[in-house]
Amino acid sequence: MRLGSYIRSRVPELLVLVALELLLALVLRISGMGTDFVAFVCSIVLVSAVVAVALGFARERGFWDSLSETCSSLDNACLLPELIDRPEFPEGQAAYDALVSVAKSANDEVAKQRRFVGEYRAYVETWVHEAKSPITAARLALSNLEEDADACAVCPREVEPVVPRLRSVEDELARVERYVEQALFYARSETLERDFLVRSHSLREMVASAIKANANLLIAAGVTPRLGEGLDLKVFTDDKWLVFMLGQLLQNTARYVRPGCEGWPQVWFDARLLDEGLANERVELTVRDNGCGVSAADLPRVLERGFTGDNGRAHKQSTGLGLWLVARLAQKMGVSVAVDSAEDEFFSVTFGFPANKMHYFED
């Protein structure tokens, strides 16, 4: 708080003081007091007023400056009353009490919302686990029906058209299962630290697991995985979460296969060690396909939540959550993500894993 602003806030009191000063001088002159005596008395009153203003400014300045500095440095303003002392002057006390009341109300609302979000997340996780059981049972039943249909020798002509339909239903169930799995990882992304175990893992093993988990989808789309160089490198990460992230990229590759692709649709996995021996030493894993790619206008936004772009309009099944969820999980795991693309040529995602063993994910 500046002296000028403090004085401007005290203008009414100062005007009253000036009026009283003039009245006192007039009374003293009417009473027959000499000019020197009147000037002496008025000087004493004036000095007393200046001292009072200075003391008031010094007393209030500490509180207001502390309030301003603390407020500007805090990310959560609700903690403000806990970090400053209650002042001695009435105006500051009123302001402090109001801050305490507002902060308490805000903290109560935040706690209420956290409880609600926690309960909702627990419900989603429970629902996902419960939903997996009937999906698995339905896929098993379909598999049995396919085996019975293949083994039926009595009426092969009547059974033959049924098999593709059964497999089509199985494909749809697999798609539902992928969405259910995505919902589970989305719900857990808010509390990643509770289900996050950092260990040294081989990139080749995790890539192979992701390919195996999405093999049927890749085969149906005609996509061929290609394991390149550097996959024998090891990184510090959680294998379950990374396999899920790689699976999201493989599902995007299968979804956005480019029509008339030269040769056949492919997805490449390559890794390399960069800046070895330096503080920013890291391992980069690049997943690149030769699909329809992303336009230059859409590329900066592909990691945004719900963004589908031109490709999403052409593919009605796009949700705009896959890449966003990958980027979100990577950020919480301390893994960098970079995307690159050329329309009708390729799309690539590069993960950067810090080589420092002491690197932890963000809360």
Automatic annotation (TrEMBL):
SUPFAM superfamilies: ATPase domain of HSP90 chaperone/DNA topoisomerase II/histidine kinase. Coiled coil: none annotated. Keywords: Kinase, Membrane, Phosphoprotein, Transferase, Transmembrane, Transmembrane helix, Two-component regulatory system. Residues 126-357 form the Histidine kinase domain. The chain crosses the membrane at residues 12-31, 37-58. InterPro entries: 2C_sensor_his_kinase, HATPase_C_sf, HATPase_dom, His_kinase_dom, HisK_dim/P_dom. It is an enzyme of class 2 (transferase). Pfam families: HATPase_c. GO terms for cellular component: plasma membrane. PANTHER family: SENSOR PROTEIN CREC. This is histidine kinase.
